[in-house]
Structure formats: C-alpha cells, structure tokens
Amino acid sequence: METSRINDPRTPPSTPSTTGVPGSPGLPGSPPSVPAAGCDVVTVSARQGLEAVDILRRGTGEAVGPVLHDDGGGTLGFLVPPGTAAAWDVPGSTCTETDGRGLTLAPEPPVEGSDWLLPPGEADLATDPAVLREALGEAARMIEAADSCR
Asked: DSSP letters along 41-91, please?
C-alpha cells in the first residue's frame, strides 16, 4: 500500500512545481501568501462548506486557506496540500488532484464560472486536511440537527 506525505499546509513547498516560469507561485518576486499551483481541491456542497468555513474561522489557531465557490452557489472548493486526494475519504465530499493543471492562484479565480470566497493573500496557504475533515464532520452534524428540528 502506497501512502502519500502531506506537507505542512502553512509552509510552501521547497521545490516549486512551476520552475522557471516568472511570476509563478513559489518563485522569487511572487507574493509569499499565494499557494503553490499543485494544491488539491476538496469540493463540498455550499451549505456544508459555508458551515465549515465558519467553524474554521472561529477555531483557535485553526486557519482556513483559499476557498472557491461556483457562481451557481452549489459548491465550495477548499485548497489543501498536494497529496491529500490520495487518502481523502470524507462522505459528501470529493478531493481532486490538480497537479497544477490550469490552476493559477492569483486574484482572478482559476476556473471559469467560479469566484473566491476567501482569496489567496487573505487566507493561509492551504487548509490543513485533518482540520478540514473535523470541520466538515461538525458542519454535517450541525446541518443534520437543524434539519431534524423542522
């Protein structure tokens, strides 16, 4: 069984995935708060994701990284460190490896039809997957409790 090593979400990788491309994340002259283009993306429903963002922002020392939302308002995407997708198993969510394909973490959203809920530069480098897993679980329990009261 092969396991993946998950880097500290608040530490940029020592070897940028876009070596030699001027202005790329992780290179000299780039903003230090922009995550590397190799981040994985955890996608959840907007309802659960917004609850999780609130939980993460209220937490003590538990920061949330950049978060995307689709213009239709149906989903949120949390940027997590590369390698997270290999072990992600949270029900109601998916984790996708991007390998930097088309993912540019600049003030403009990286995907057409999306926008930043928490843009790079206003958030940590990436959300810690273990902390996100806990927040999504708590959010699911809160939503279930609220729905059962109806």
From this structure: EEEEEHHHHHHHHHHHHHSSS-----EEEETTSSEEEEEE-TTGGGG---T
